[in-house]
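HOLO CASE FILE
Compound: alpha-L-arabinofuranose
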Amino acid sequence: MKEFKMLINAADVSAHINKEIYGSFSEHLGRCIYGGLYVGEDSEIPNVHGIRKDAAEALRAVRLPVLRWPGGCFADEYHWKDGIGPKESRRKMINTNWGGVVEDNSFGTHEFFELCELIGCEPYVAGNVGSGTVQELAEWVEYMNFDGVSPMAELRAENGREKPWGLKYLGIGNENWGCGGNMDADYYSSVYRRFANFCKDYSDSRLYKIACGPNADNYEWTETMMKTLKHNWAWQASGISLHYYCVPDWANKGKAAEFDEEGYFAVLSSANYIDTLLTNHGKIMDRWDPECQVGLIVDEWGTWFDVEDGTNPGFLYQQNTMRDAIVAGLTLNSLNRHASRVKMANIAQVVNVLQALLLTEGDKMIKTPTYHVFDLYKEHQDGECVYCFTENENIGAGGSELPMLSSSASVKDGRLTLTLSNCSLTESAKLSADICNFAAAEATARVLTGDVHDHNTFTDPEKVVIRPLEVKLEGSRLTVELPACSVAEISLK
Ligand code: AHR
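Model generated. Tokens follow.
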């Protein structure tokens, strides 16, 4: 056991933590939409208009605040009019990015908004810029948001929806430096302005337009976007995106549940690199926008491993272990700490794809360790991020080094929430924390822990679950012992 001191100052607030930092992403990819979220009305799997009840309920339970759709790379090939109207007459297309399978468009705009209503989250729609037209995207916005007499409002009503949905979050393309059109930053920024110009604010809705931002450490992209997005009267984008997958070696990603100590630390250290990216992109944005009017939207993040044996390589289906849980813990702590600039984040993806929150097999559904981390962290949503210092020491293997402990803290509605990860595989951490400027009468704690390879399966769905953790509060001194390989939440009231 190692001993560490901590200091938390509840009066030292650095930023508001937008609840949207705890968002996710659903793409027409593999079994994310079809099978994972949508099974069709004729399915024997319990559903509401084809939407899986178990998945919607599980996501509601962790208060998923926002869901991005329909991609990803798929977004820049998606033509929204193919996904409305009677299902039998919807056009079928090839999903060229993901396995070349037939996309029958049975899940479209109406189904997506209904899914978001069932979950209780904000919809975030990514528009097609790569292969679509300005008119097509402008009409989609009119279809979703216009409350009055217009061709798209009439079409919506013909399809059974009188009132507009009032979309807020609109992505103007996805990865336009890659699968979204292979553009360079100068070219995309002009394209962005043209598309964004015709996506209007209708009725009571005010669009929060998100421009395609950089991949990982492409700082030039951020610089160019910030330089060209500032119009003479206002910013033309409310946010720019950042995509970051923690993959130490793209040529050799390895398996989600089969790895050694070196593989563990390599992935964790790659996950921690997001902190450097947020700092550096943030510095560039600060120079152009010191008032933080443009949000950094981390709308794809997470682990990316080789697919599970016997599954379609284009479906990106991977297991999810305690290693993924620690990745989620480190990343979410980092996003909290950068909340003055980061206004939304979306883990990739929500079901059955990459670092999924849920996995399904037929009528069965399991919650992954990553799902449980979102549960542990949910009280941070819309909290105020406060000062939290942890004594630390570096650990690692195979050339990867990282701090043993990670933490963040927030205050909301008279509750102080502290989240912690212990990355050591062998040592527990005894923490002794001084809590300043917060009068707490009681403390409770919950923990997710186990062997680093532990994961939930359809035959053993509760191998990794949240359990209570003992914590002691004496005056303003809190003590707790974090097991090795764990993510924990401590709540003080
Ligand atoms: O999440 C999988 C893919 O990763 C997305 O479609 C794309 O945007 C990114 O490259």
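CASE NOTES: The first helix runs from residue 53 to 61. The chain has a mean pLDDT of 97.
CLOSED: yes
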